[in-house]
Amino acid sequence: MVSDNGKAGRSLYTLLGIIIVAVVLAVLGGRATYDYLSEQQRMTEGMEQSSALSLASLQKNITPLIEAYAINDYDKLIATEIELRQHFAIIVTDLNMGKIRAEAAYTSGKIRNAAGNIIDFNPDDPTHRRQLDSRFYTDTVPIISSSGTHLGSIAVYVTDEKMKRELNRILIQNLINTVVIALLLIALLIFAIHRLLVHPLARIAKCIGQTDSDGIPTSLIPSFAFRELSVLTDRMNTMILMIGRSRDLLHQRTETLSRSNAELNRLGEAMAHHFQEPARRLTSFSQRLQGKPALVADEDSRLAVEFIDQQARRLSELVRDAQHYLALDHAKVDAGGTADSAAALRQAIAANSATAQAEIVLGESMPQVRLAEKLLSELFAILLDNALRYSKPERPLRIEVSASVRGERAVFCFADNGSGIAPEYRAQVFDLFSRLVPNSVPGTGMGLALVRKIVQQTGGDVSVEDGIDGGACIVFDLPFDFPLEPQA
Amino acid sequence: MKILKMVAVICLLMASLTSAGAAQATEMRLAYIVSDLRIPFWDIMKRGVGSRAEALGYSVVFFSAENDAKRELELATKAVREKVDGIILSPTNSSAAVTILKLAKAAGIPVVISDIGSDGGDYVSYIASDNREGSYQIGKVLAKALQARQWDKGSVGIIAIPQKRANGQARTAGFMNALNEAGIKGAGIRQQATFTYQETYDFARELIAANTDLRALWLQGSDRYQGALDAIAAAGKNGQILLICFDAEPEFLQLIPKGTLVGAAMQQPFLMGEEAVNTMDSHLNGKPVKQLQLLPILPVSTGNLAEMLPVIRRNVLGMNVK
Q1: Which residues of A20-36 are buried (b: 16+ CB within 10 A; e: fewer)?
Q2: Is the pLDDT of residue A65 over 60?
Q3: Of A282, B214, B272, B309, which sits most exposed with the smallest number of CB within 10 A?
Q4: Which of residues 89-108 of B touch A (CB under 8 A)?
């Protein structure tokens, strides 16, 4: 997340640094681990091979010495072999000598003491036994005479202490190498990234940060030596230029629109004054004529005057509604702060006496919305008027108004059991002067257009859905003011 | 004069051994493990051991390995099992001695080695002949005999015991030192392996055939002297090639005066056996002993035989001794 001033959020520089450190350490650490394990395996194999070579050599040379009861001679061979191969111990089990001593076997050999010196193995020494048991690797071969007699066995004991020392040395060496190389690589990479990426990006950010009052950079981004950055800056400069041109075009269109709006306002004012005045005069004069007995006696004349009066009133309503419609463009929809939707509805009900014929049901939770209460009351008044006007005479009118909150919007459903609106007409009923009934039915065709305009002024929308028993349901949404509180 | 001093030392040594005998009066037992009592040298040493042990009040068990390594180990094991108080050891070889010393050490039994020696291990003392000095002295006897005959421009051949043995090396080195001092050259060396009459005879014939100026043969042993004499005779060199030996046989007491042998460097096995027991006795009584004791070798020749005869008969040949 980056704030408006670009100072907060994670630093690309830091993130790249962390990635570089992690990658370098992982690669070098992996390599060091591989070297360590390889060396361990090599040394283990070496020890096993060395042990096998010793056993093969001793097996060949000791056999005649055991047969000749030359114990010291094979002890000397063992000492030489231990010294040569760096074994921990070599133990010979001599059955011939065992027979002489009336024992199962005579055990002798050489072992290394704590100082690493080669000493005689003492089978009765528990320390020697314990040391043998804890050796890293042991291998044993039997000693068989040329005639096939079992003469005993030779066991080689290998210690891993030297291997451990060597591996520790390698580990420390690898660790030092890893740290040194990692530090060098990290420093080099961070320097390179700073010079090649972060620094150019900072220059770009600084350049595009110098803007005019519309937030458009005042100058183009300078070019860089590297192709990738040049492509980026070229594209950004193209965008800056296009945004500038779009801004100019927008200004031109705004000015045109402003002029059109001004003219429209003047037209509205003209309608308010110049169109309403003739309508009122027509009404006034038609009422005078309706008072003339001679004219009333003549049926045709009377009908004509009544028609003139009727049309004059309709013209007046049309001018009033059109004026009101245009005035909405300048109205501040939330000028009155917030509105209690239930109160606004009740206000609209009270203002229309005809609603007494209808059963009006309010939802349990009617929300508070950010809309001038007068406008919300007017919106409900239009919907009530429509419901009353298009109710079915064969059944009492029922109106159900409910609301729910979806995110930041309060969604209202104004449903009735009137004649309803066929699906194919549901889109056009919100157009200006749109009427689905003959002109003989009162109305200007402006009601739902006004509803839509009020709703759209708040950023919402309105539509028609199925109502109660074939009636219609006007669904619209308004900005929600605060959470609903459950009613007791 | 030097020989007289040596005789005086030996007599003093014998006197001291005799005077110390009555001091020991316990029932302690010793074992003498010897390589092969069928060989006179070891038998004489055995008698020296027995004589001195009896004098000091020890009983001795004699174990002859008959030059068999297995038997030697069996006897050593037996001696250890019987928990003798001390072991006198004349091993079949210096390597076998190490194992016996190890067995004795494990049982806490002290060991004195008499001749041959050991490649290692712990022992109380090692009694040995001073081979180098004895060979040097007999070399001087031969040089003197050659010079007296004006044969000192001729060469001297050596029929040696194996030179990998320390005593073999010491004998050769001491002898050659004496020849070098006299300006007499060597004619080559043959090392014995089987120690048979035939081997000695063949080696002597080879040396005579290979060196026309050969004036003497030195045999680093005693029991096969007849092979060398026969080879000289067979080569038609009787009276032209001298023979000188190491160690002694009883018949040397006749051959040396007759001139058949110029002389012999005589070890003193009887004395060595006595000294081994004496050393063990000192150790068992808590007295300090030297770890290496070199006993003199007698350079016997025609000129001093009569003078040294009592010592030779007793210490070398073990004769007239109970």
Answers
A1: bbeebbeebeeebeeeb
A2: yes
A3: B309
A4: 95-99, 102
* Size of the A and B interface in Cβ pairs below 8 Å: 34
User: Quick one: pLDDT at residue A330?
Assistant: 67
Q: Tell me the percentage of chain B whose pLDDT exceeds 70.
A: 91
What's the confidence (pLDDT) of residue B212? 96
Comparing CA positions, the residue from B94, B138, B140 lying closest to residue B247 is B138
Cβ-based neighbours of A377, under 8 Å, separated by 6 or more: A339, A344, A345, A347, A348, A351
Q: What span, in angstroms and rounded, lies between the C-alpha atoms of A358 and A400?
A: 10
Give every CB contact of residue A292 below 8 A, 6+ residues apart in sequence.
none
Q: How much is the pLDDT for B175? A: 97
pLDDT recorded at residue A336? 56
A71 and B73 within 8 Å at the Cβ level: the answer is yes
Residue A447 · residue A381 · CB < 8 Å: no
Beta strands in A394-460 (DSSP E): 398-406, 409-416
Task: Give the pLDDT mean for B180-195.
Answer: 95
* Complex-level ipTM beyond the 0.85 threshold: no
Q: At what angle do helices A276-290 and A299-327 cross, to 10 degrees?
A: 160
Structure confidence by residue, pLDDT tens digits, A215-264: 888 888 888 888 888 888 888 999 999 998 998 899 999 999 888 878 87
Burial zone of B96 (CB within 10 Å; 0-12 exposed, 13-18 middle, 19+ buried): buried
Structure tokens at A64: 């005649």
Residue A487, pLDDT score: 46
Burial tier of A301 (Cβ tally within 10 Å: 0-12, 13-18, 19+): middle
Alpha-carbon distance of A233 to A225, in angstroms, equals: 11
- Give the per-residue pLDDT at A29: 82
Tokens matching residue A384: 């009530």
Cβ distance B102 to A120 less than 8 Å, yes or no, reads yes
Q: Which residues of A touch B104 (CB under 8 A)?
A: none
Instruction: Name the residue among A73, A75, A100 with its Cβ closest to that of B73.
Output: A100
Rounded to whole angstroms, the Cα distance separating A349 from A365 reads 18
Q: What does chain A come to in residues?
A: 488
Where would I find the beta strands (DSSP E) of A80-159? 89-94, 106-112, 118-120, 137-144, 150-158
Q: What local confidence, expressed as pLDDT, does residue A7 receive?
A: 53
Alpha carbons B200 and A256: distance in angstroms, whole number: 142
**Contact assignment for A72 to B74 by CB distance below 8 Å:** no
The token duo for B171 is: 């004998």
Structure tokens at B311: 């010592």
Q: Interhelix angle for A71-85 vs B94-107, to 10°?
A: 90
Mean pLDDT within B160-165:
89
Q: How far is A133 from chain B (nearest CA, A)?
A: 23
Cβ separation B119–A75 shorter than 8 A: no
The amino acid sitting at A210 is Q
| Dihedral sign for Cα atoms in the order A43, A46, A52, A58 | negative
Q: Which of A96, A105, A62, A92 is nearest to B70 (CA)?
A: A96
- Residue A274 DSSP label: I
- The strand pair at A472-479 and A409-416 is best described as antiparallel
Q: What are the φ and ψ backbone dihedral angles of A487, each rounded to 5 degrees?
A: -85, 145
